[in-house]
Backbone:
């Protein structure tokens, strides 16, 4: 153990959660090492495609067959093109086993998926935190809204978010800048739907995108090219917001290209003393030491590192007394929805590209109890007028065709539901010890499927979307209910759940491993259920809350 | 936190990056040569893209070098099956297409379109041609800024505006 390798705190991962752990720990005066397995991406200067026009990108921004061969999973994502491909991993280099098909979308670089996320930031309510206990599903959350509410506020004040506050019990009030404007069709839908259905509202989503300047960042310039990185710092990313704040304290050491192999567990002390790191390029292993370790490597990777940390005390993975480590994997599902066109409002248009969706908050299982399924879903709603792309599939061509498709076409709407998935014990990950990666770390094997509750919900998502649009004057309403490959919503969560009882959970109510209290897991691994709304805000709030607890415990000498 | 001016400076650094200069240099380098198709295929493509997107109140597809876009993008982006369909489709059009009257050119392409539109994408010469012609033209500088409306950095979002007279659709 050398001074150079010893810190007060180590954070594994630099994404959504790791950035927050770094900021909070360093601001509380702890010398903090942040380990990132991928390359560094410096804010602004490394966003090399951010301001490129389509014709400045290879093949007018179309991915090549070679790109798709190198990134067969990543390239299936809606965001993937020439301008963003560098933000996603090479699937062939970072392989994993799929006991059942699972789309694992990842960015291994400083900032992680905080650079490419969809930026939706809703709070969870006690409808969510109380659901498992109320319904006897899985285990109860060990916290309630009152426990996390101040931390939601803490995070919102710093990251800056915009949106409507719909004043609904299922969407607790947030600290928000004014929303982005609705277009003419969205205003129409809001008026007609809210008249036809008293339980349904259309709002501008809460998003970590600035509609006004905030702490010298933003506002949004209307490019809608967020996943390239934002030169205006108008959306929240670790790179642009939390890591610079951590660096400003002088307490941050950020080390890219460092894969964490496992944690170092001291049987005598019953504590973790540090981490084993493999240098991506030299394959050299180095040990780093700290009093406290924050696991923020993303849901599957944090749990993978814990599973790979085996000792006489924990033969099945660090802190795995319950046997739940690796289990209860969840993702949202978004198979149900509808498309439609709208015949009027031909004299209205918009200017700029809005980097948000409209949103219909959950209305199922809020006040009534549905017979067909537990939990609920919210809809993201996207509208636009037809562009030149409507000409691609048509048999037409020539001057009239060109004149037609270069003018704004009719209005179109696309909506899909985002539904909660119940925690199932056998939706899980484990290590393939016979299949190590190039750094000697066993690959993950992933097995997850959706079940009857999710399928019943998806059908209702479709039916409700159709009903809403038909009641609101739309034409060509086409409902869909598509099969979803787990992982596709990129909200993988669970596998190291929180709980009150060490016999049934991995983490306590402060994201602390029950039996190893100087290790905190604050990314999506900790989730006990998968509430309808997008999860990142909750990861950030739980992380800040856990740091506060960790530092208090360190000061008290408990860890 | 770095201040706002520093971020805007950052943006200007990116704007000044080499790409545009490289593109201009490529154009200035002299007559372009096909890389994948033959000279005669390229001439056929030049004619075809202009039959699909002729000069109107904006330049024709060939003025934006859409045929050269296809020459680069088909080998890079199309699957082997689509490439095969595309080559066979070009060969079937024959060498005399450019010499037909405009009416005959339209009729011949329409006959092909009527036949191909029922086929799956990878089996449909017309669908592949149409796809690459539209992407090549409308996302070119000429197509995006003259045939359509394009603003690299809109500066914000205005959701509900009256449609301006002769308003072009947004390119992206």
Residues:
């Amino acid at each position: 153990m050398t001074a150079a390798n010893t810190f007060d705190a180590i954070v594994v991962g630099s994404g959504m959660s790791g950035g927050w752990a770094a900021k909070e720990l360093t601001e509380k005066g702890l010398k903090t090492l942040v380990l990132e397995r991928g390359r560094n991406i410096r804010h602004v200067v490394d966003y090399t495609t951010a301001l490129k026009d389509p014709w400045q990108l290879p093949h007018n921004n179309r991915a090549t067959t070679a790109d798709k061969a190198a990134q067969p999973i990543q390239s299936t994502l809606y965001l993937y093109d020439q301008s963003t491909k560098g933000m996603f991993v090479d699937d062939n280099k970072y392989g994993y086993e799929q006991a059942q098909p699972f789309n694992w979308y990842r960015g291994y670089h400083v900032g992680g998926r905080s650079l490419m996320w969809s930026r939706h930031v809703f709070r969870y309510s006690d409808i969510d935190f109380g659901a498992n206990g109320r319904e006897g599903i899985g285990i109860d959350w060990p916290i309630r809204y009152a426990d996390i509410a101040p931390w939601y506020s803490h995070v919102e004040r710093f990251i800056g978010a915009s949106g409507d506050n719909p004043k609904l019990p299922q969407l607790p009030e947030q600290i928000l800048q004014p929303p982005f404007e609705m277009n003419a069709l969205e205003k129409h839908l809001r008026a007609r739907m809210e008249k036809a259905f008293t339980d349904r509202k259309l709002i501008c989503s809460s998003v970590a995108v600035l509609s006004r300047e905030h702490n010298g960042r933003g506002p949004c310039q209307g490019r809608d090219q967020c996943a390239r990185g934002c030169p205006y710092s108008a959306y929240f990313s670790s790179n642009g917001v939390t890591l610079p704040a951590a660096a400003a304290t002088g307490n941050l050491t950020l080390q890219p290209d460092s894969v964490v192999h496992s944690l170092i567990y001291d049987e005598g002390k019953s504590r973790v003393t540090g981490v084993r790191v493999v240098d991506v390029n030299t394959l050299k292993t180095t040990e780093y030491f700290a009093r406290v370790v924050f696991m923020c490597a993303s849901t599957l990777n944090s749990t993978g590192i814990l599973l790979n940390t085996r000792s006489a005390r924990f033969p099945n993975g660090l802190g795995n007394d319950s046997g739940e480590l690796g289990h209860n994997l969840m993702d949202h599902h978004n198979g149900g929805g509808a498309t439609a066109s709208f015949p009027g409002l031909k004299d209205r248009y918009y200017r700029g590209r809005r980097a948000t969706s409209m949103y219909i908050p959950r209305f199922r299982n809020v006040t009534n109890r549905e017979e067909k399924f537990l939990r609920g879903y919210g809809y993201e709603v996207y509208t636009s007028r037809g562009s030149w792309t409507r000409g691609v599939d048509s048999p037409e061509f020539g001057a009239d065709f060109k004149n037609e498709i270069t003018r704004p076409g009719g209005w179109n709407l696309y909506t899909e539901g985002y539904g909660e998935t119940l925690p199932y014990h056998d939706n899980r990950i484990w290590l393939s010890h016979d299949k190590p990666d190039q750094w000697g770390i066993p690959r993950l094997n992933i097995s997850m499927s959706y079940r009857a509750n999710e399928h019943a919900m998806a059908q209702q998502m479709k039916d409700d979307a159709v009903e809403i649009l038909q009641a609101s004057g739309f034409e060509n309403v086409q409902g869909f209910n598509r099969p979803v490959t787990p992982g596709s919503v990129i909200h993988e969560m669970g596998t190291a759940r929180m709980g009150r009882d060490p016999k049934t959970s991995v983490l306590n109510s402060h994201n602390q491993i029950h039996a190893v209290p100087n290790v905190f897991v604050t990314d999506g691994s900790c989730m006990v259920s998968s509430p309808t709304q997008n999860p990142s805000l909750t990861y950030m709030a739980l992380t800040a809350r856990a740091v506060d607890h960790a530092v208090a415990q360190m000061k008290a000498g408990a860890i | 936190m770095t201040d706002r001016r520093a971020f805007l400076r950052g943006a200007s650094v990116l704007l000044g990056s080499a790409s545009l200069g490289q593109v201009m240099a490529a154009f200035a380098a002299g007559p372009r040569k096909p890389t994948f198709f033959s000279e005669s295929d390229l001439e056929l493509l030049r004619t075809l893209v202009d039959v699909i997107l002729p000069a109107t109140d904006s330049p024709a597809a060939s003025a934006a070098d859409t045929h050269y876009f296809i020459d680069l993008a088909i080998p890079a982006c199309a699957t082997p099956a689509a490439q095969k369909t595309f080559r066979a489709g070009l060969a079937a059009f024959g060498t005399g297409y450019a010499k037909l009257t405009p009416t005959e050119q339209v009729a011949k392409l329409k006959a092909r379109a009527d036949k191909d539109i029922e086929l799956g994408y990878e089996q449909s010469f017309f669908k592949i041609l149409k796809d690459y012609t539209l992407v090549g033209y409308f996302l070119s500088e000429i197509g995006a800024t003259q045939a359509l409306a394009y603003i690299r950095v809109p500066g914000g979002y205005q959701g509900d505006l009256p449609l301006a007279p002769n308003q072009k659709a947004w390119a992206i």
